[in-house]
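Inputs:
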Amino acid sequence: MATELPKAYDPKAAQEKWLSFWEERGYFHSEPDASKKPYTIVIPPPNVTGALHMGHALNNTLQDVLIRWRRMQGFNALWMPGTDHAGIATQSVVERLVFQQEKKTRHDLGRDALVKRIWEWKDKYEARILGQLRELGASCDWRRTRFTLDPVCARAVRETFFRMFRDGYIYRGKRLVNWDTHLQTSVADDETYTEETKSGFWTFKYPVDGMPDTFISFSTTRPETMLGDTAVCVHPSDERYKALVGKLVLQPHTGRKIPIIADGQLADPELGTGCVKVTPAHDPNDYACWQRHPEIGIINILNPDGTINEAGGEYKGMDRYKAREAVTEKMKELGLYVDKSERMVPMPYSDRSKTPIEPYLSDQWFVKMGDREDSKPGLAQMTMDAVTSGKVKFFPERYARSYLDWLTEKRDWCISRQLWWGHRIPVWSKTFPSNRAFEAALVWDFDGAHQWLDRERVASQGQEGSLTLHLCLKADDPPTIARLESLGFTQSDDVLDTWFSSALWPHSTLGWPGPALPEEKPGRAPANWDALRYYYPTSTLVTSRDIITLWVARMVLTGLYNVGDIPFRDVYIHPKILDGFGEGMSKTKGNGVDPLDIIDLYGTDAMRYTMVKMATENQDARMPVSNVCPHCGTMIPQKQEHQSMRTKKLTCPGDKAKGITCGKAFRPGGPWPEPDPELPTARQASDRFEEGRNFANKMWNATRFLLMNLDGYTPGPMKLEELPTEDRWLLSRLATTTRAVTAALEGYRFSDVARLVYDFVWSEFCDWYIEMSKGRLKDAAARPTAQRVLAGVLDGILRLVQPVMPFVAESLWQALNEAAPERGLPAPSKAEESAAIARWPSYPEGWINSEVEARFARMQELVRGVREIRNRYQVDDKTRLDVSVKCSPAVAADFNALAAFIGPLAGIANLTAGPNTAKPKQAGGLVKPEFEAYVSLVGLIDVSAELKRLEKQLTDKRKSLEGTRAKLANEKFVSGAPPEVVQQQRELASDIEKQIAALEENLKDLRSAE
RNA sequence: GCGCGUUUAGCUCAGUUGGCUAGAGUACCACAUUGACAUUGUGGGGGUCACUGGUUCAAGUCCAGUAACGCGCACCA
């Protein structure tokens, strides 16, 4: 007896076993090799603090499918793994933790201590997320693992910043930023969310200067910003205010006199009073207005912590919300208060701290995106050209549009962040009180190869005329830094936007700017020119659509700018996974699903299969979830109120169908902060994964069947034309499937890959071929060929399946290697030692044989027809039926050749086929378009019930014939439609005619039997 | 408001350049059960292809419009 497999596939055992097997053999490590073509993917680096979520599972499964497939195709496949330091996300997590544990803020700890704490945190969580990726089966080259703060990356960041600074792309500017007063940092637009919040809506009036009893009124939701008003604004065409434009009004809190201006973009005469106050430093629209009317001035009234600064006069030091009340109170005292109402206003919040955002004017560093006066390229334009020229292709194509639309705006990129965790901005600055002092400083002798000077006028309030010298150092050179510091220069406290280092990811991780090597950890593969030259540009980027602008566009930008070439040729954008209610999964919503729960319950292969199946062209994938009762295992569908931890406790209703009455309580699955010792938490499941689990088991058992029937197996070559019909059919189907799968992978049609493989394995190989082989395996003459075909086709299946479900594929590959190490089609050869490195299959085009497929389909129709009758008349399996088929001699020959196999499949005792075959007396009918088959059912059926059924069928068929004939009688149709379509209709009509005739005969027979 | 998507069986989704009786998985119903597999097998029921109009011999598919949902971008004093 050959190798025995257990009855069911055990995913856990397989996962553990093959992960270490693959790694020990180093299959996933890649080195530059001029004799092979590279295929490279860089991972979208997950956040170090993150735990694996469904989005990662999808994203990384798809990358792994591509990498494993290309590796099998003989490419030198490199999948570069790594993690992102994710500035604000990570820092705020650690800050929060430190505060919880020690009640210390980051300012209590100090910069160095906090950064050290974050590094410790990072080491731990980086290991966790990378470990989880490994468990997914991700075939990354782990020896090349990078982190965006690694020396390799830091060097690239420094070099890029230096070059951009030198080339005049980086500049210092004032911008209104989203200010998080809690974290005291600016936040990107996409790091904020807007929530409808109940707010006061005040109306006040300002007295017009020099016009007693004349007032101009306006409304606001933020009265404290009146302290920073520098104008009031009306619409130029607004008749009510025309006379007032150009006059001054009194800002009562500060005593300043501010102008009434006309601006058609800011003021809307239809809204409110038609007049708005203008606070350029604290409102984005007002800021834009100030840019159009710079003469009105701009006054910042806030400190970084959200209190009022010295510009607020007597309100200085007050929290902004306290100031809101005080300012309002003052207006009441002065009789300038009109009224107040409540309304819901959209209020921006910081995603990290969950506190309201303040628009805040601050000094920031920017990358200039627009076109330039000199000969240097405009960065946005250059980045767009890469896509419009077709050098970078999007899959699906439509996403190129989001990319281009966003870049068209050419908005400058704010790259500074007021954080401590990240790449510190390599700029040292000093402010000089006068121009002369500044000029004097410029004559200092610095080595131009390592630094670059930039100068810029700073026009902050009260310091007009002062000048700041900014100096960028290409590398940290201690003597130079010491000298700068002794001269009073200080390094910027800010760090760079996380996306600045992620933008360099494809080339920094491969060794740009080479060739100098920073220190490497032992066991790490080097990043240098060799790697860069060989692997760059990478092949495919796999990511989600929400970072097309933030990340994809910027990688293209820096790739072109630094390396002079695009970072990747293809960008594949995958769908999003939504919850059962069509909403995106997020931590805040509490509707996420832990992939580890899924892996635990269904196995990694099952999860991967489902991820691949969900990756369709144009639709996000919904994933309804159930809670698995921790007591009895019953699945309870999750409702919306179970999410967001709104439901703290659920009672298991049990499962009536299975007779389980549980009634015990548990906590629904979700991102609970703490385990609850009293109440066990449910794991989450989704029946969408069952298909994958069942599929893995199906292949397991198909292999098991083969191994049980492999006694006496000998490898040997096969001649296609000598093989019986069912073999040729199977090989035709295998060749077709293999081609289709390869084409689907080439076009990033992942869902098709899963479907094609599934259908071939289950519906063709298992349902038909294996069933038919059972007879042949008992026949000494036919057995060797059947064994070879079974082994050869299974071999091909495992290769096709490997990229998607590597664990089960490897398990079965190894089992097959023991039993039949030499196998394959058309001629056997020694199989590779692992499915992970097996050659991707490709079969001769000549195997695809539509004639054989058609003949086989006819046979399947006969079998299905007989089964249908058997089911309808409740004929048990033990009763053998006699079937006679009236057909052409060729078809008859086919049926007779296959009779030995058809018999067992349909429970047929005698199958007779031929042109002159006599119809059995009193037969139940079965009609097929190309042949007439009669099943003898004498004594087996309820004749009167059957009569009724047939009569109804006859009526339906007559109607359908009428319709078809009408169509054929239509002159327009006959002349307008392609001939083959008309022919099809004719055939359909004659088929129906035949069917009607057969039905009539059946009825006659049955009536006589009655 | 602008742009992009989606709407097909109870649920989750396929459906190529218009062309045979619109498919799959799951759920449901019936039957089967020592033979690879109950994570199974066989068969069945279930669809006004969101709606309206148009083009065409022919529309789930193309065009126009409507509605609902989702996403992105702008805007909301």
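Chain A is about 40% helix and 20% strand. Flag for discussion at group meeting.
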